UniProtKB/TrEMBL annotation, chain A:
Belongs to the ABC transporter superfamily. Residues 5-249 form the ABC transporter domain. Pfam families: ABC_tran. It comes from the Bacteria. It comes from Terrilactibacillus laevilacticus. PROSITE patterns: ABC_TRANSPORTER_1, ABC_TRANSPORTER_2. Keywords: ATP-binding, Nucleotide-binding, Transport. This is ATP-binding cassette domain-containing protein. Gene3D superfamilies: P-loop containing nucleotide triphosphate hydrolases. One of its GO terms (molecular function) is ATP binding.
Automatic annotation (TrEMBL), chain B:
This is ABC transporter permease. It comes from the Bacteria. It is a multi-pass membrane protein. Belongs to the binding-protein-dependent transport system permease family. Coiled coil: none annotated. Residues 90-279 form the ABC transmembrane type-1 domain. It is found in: Cell membrane. The keyword Cell membrane applies. Keywords: Cell membrane, Membrane, Transmembrane, Transmembrane helix, Transport.
Length: 256, 292
């Protein structure tokens, strides 16, 4: 299989000389086309930072990231692939939707970065309605404001917004950790189905091992900015190699 | 630049969270302010209907007449009816005050949002220029600007707008610094949307509420400043009926003809006082932290 995204010896250092935090330390990993790669680790392990490097919110200090064999970061400039190709869903649906915009405007927003022809093609009302229904919302919701929705519904809006451009790679940064458990399951199932239907590739960032186990084909475990283990889900779960992974797994079993 | 729809939406949203009318009832000073302003606005709008006189027509035969039924507030040194000139002056003062603050707020919020959003060197340059403007007392700076541009109403308006801009820049910038970190702004960056559309679509609509409050507070100030410049001979030029310049010519006659500067002065006091009361009230109502 060819990697869709290849991360090579990526470092991300915050702060100046005196007060340095190495958020990401020398990480190399591939993300293959069509898979869900789970990125797991405790708070502050650098997993969200790695996600931000991929979507262009933070520049790496050193190292190289390629997307379909094209470099994503040239020095401090983000070389965006086709707009809308890489999308994201953030953790907190309270703050990821602009309170002043209607749902319709929110979902259509990513299209405004596309060339005119593509925008017209993808911005049709039929497509919008189909998408809204697909993510489990109703057409009459389109004229409302985000504060009128529950957390799960907002996350569905955010998912619809990510899908409107027809992306191939989506970075999901703890998409369900702000939701309660029953809603979490619905959203996870929706994501799984959407991935099947649209041939998507997911980078799924989470600290929750059971969510990761349910969603992912492969798991990458991060600890203090470094990559400690990466393998297929069943191998990581059944034969964890690193002590930290074992600890993560044991904490999960205790909770269950 | 400020979409009126967004402004009304902002107000609507606040009505939901704060029952404005309820609070207004319990805030007597603000109610009084609204009533006085409402009265003055009505008088200004209805000016041509309310008085039979022309504010600029000279009638030397009737000069310096005291208050009477023909001329409620008397006449001035060339026989013009003072009440008429006050009413037409109210149109000018209110219009100019609102316009100046609107322009200053629009420009200020945009500069502030740009400054806060981009940060770095752009921010440093803009904010240092604003600090320079803020370092001068506003009135002195406005006077200096008008004097160098040449005394006229337009130049006075421009000067006051320039002097007021830094307040809005700072306000909008501090709001922007908070908004810039919000996920909906970050998402827009990820979608590949350019900075200026992000500022126009996300930052400014969300930063507009405190700016509206500040603007309500400042209209009264702007009216006072226009009058002050008029008084000093830097603002509206005769024969334009303007409160400041009326007081300016009138005070020379104060001992003999007391009514000439007194009535424009009272109206100036009432208008800026009412606007200040409203401004305070609006701030109390919209800012839950300042609840008494």
């Amino acid at each position: 299989m060819t990697p869709l995204v290849q991360i090579n010896h990526i470092n991300k250092i915050y702060g100046n000389r005196k007060d340095v935090i190495e958020a990401v330390k020398d990480i190399s990993l591939p993300v293959y086309e069509g898979e869900t790669l789970g990125l797991v680790g405790e708070s502050g392990s650098g997993k969200s930072t790695l996600g931000k490097l991929l979507i262009g919110l933070e520049a790496p200090t050193s190292g190289e990231i390629t997307y379909r064999d094209k470099v994503l970061w040239k020095k401090k400039r983000f070389m965006r692939p086709r707009p809308g190709e890489i999308q994201t869903v953030f953790q907190d649906p309270q703050s990821s939707l602009d309170p002043r915009l209607r749902v319709k405007q929110i979902i259509f927003e990513p299209l405004s970065a596309l060339p005119l022809k593509e925008r017209k093609e993808k911005g049709s009302i039929e497509r919008l309605h189909a998408l809204v229904k697909r993510v489990g919302l109703k057409v009459e919701h389109l004229d409302r404001y985000p504060h009128e929705f529950s957390g799960g519904q907002r996350q569905r809006i955010a998912i619809a917004r990510a899908l409107i451009t027809g992306p191939s790679f989506i970075v999901l940064d703890e998409p369900t950790s702000a939701l309660d458990v029953s809603v979490q399951a619905q959203v996870l199932n929706l994501l799984k189905e959407l991935k099947q239907e649209n041939q998507l590739t997911f980078l799924f960032i989470s600290h929750n091992m059971s969510v990761i186990r349910y969603m992912c084909d492969r798991i990458a475990v991060m600890y203090k900015g470094g990559l400690v283990e990466i393998d297929e889900t069943k191998n990581v779960l059944n034969h964890p190699k690193h002590d930290y992974t074992k600890m993560l797994l044991s904490s999960m079993l205790k909770v269950n | 630049m400020i979409n009126p729809q967004i402004v009304t939406e902002a107000k609507e949203k606040n009505t939901k969270t704060h029952p404005i009318w309820f609070k207004l009832k319990h805030n007597k000073m603000t109610t009084i302010g609204f009533l006085v302003l409402f009265l003055i606005v009505c008088l200004a709008i209805l000016a041509p209907i309310l008085t039979p006189y022309d504010p600029a027509k000279i009638n030397v035969a009737e000069k310096f007449q005291g208050p009477s039924l023909q001329h409620l507030f008397g006449t001035d040194e060339v026989g013009r009816d003072i009440l008429t000139r006050i009413l037409f002056g109210a149109r000018l003062s209110l219009g100019v005050g609102l316009l100046v603050i609107f322009v200053a707020a629009c420009i200020g919020i945009f500069i502030g949002a740009v400054s806060g959003y981009f940060g770095g060197i752009i921010d440093q340059i803009i904010m240092r220029v604003m600090d320079m403007l803020l370092a001068f007392p506003t009135l002195i700076l406005a006077m200096a600007l008008t004097a160098s541009l040449g005394p006229s109403l337009h130049n006075a308006m421009m000067a006051i707008a320039i002097v007021e801009i830094p307040i809005y820049v700072r306000l909008a910038r501090s709001e922007t610094l908070v908004l810039r970190e919000k996920l909906f702004v970050k998402s827009a960056v990820v979608f590949g949307i350019k900075p200026i559309p992000i500022i126009l679509k996300h930052i400014i609509p969300n930063a507009v509420s405190p700016v509206i409050i500040q603007a309500t507070l400042d209209v009264g100030n702007a009216i006072l400043m226009i009058a002050t410049l008029g008084f000093l001979g830097l603002g509206a030029q005769p024969p334009t009926p303007e409160w400041g310049s009326m007081i300016s010519t009138g005070w020379k006659y104060l001992l003999d003809y007391w009514w000439y500067p007194t009535f424009p002065g009272i109206f100036l006091f009432l208008t800026s006082g009412a606007l200040n009361l409203i401004g305070d009230g609006v701030r109390d109502i919209l800012d839950p932290k300042s609840n008494r």
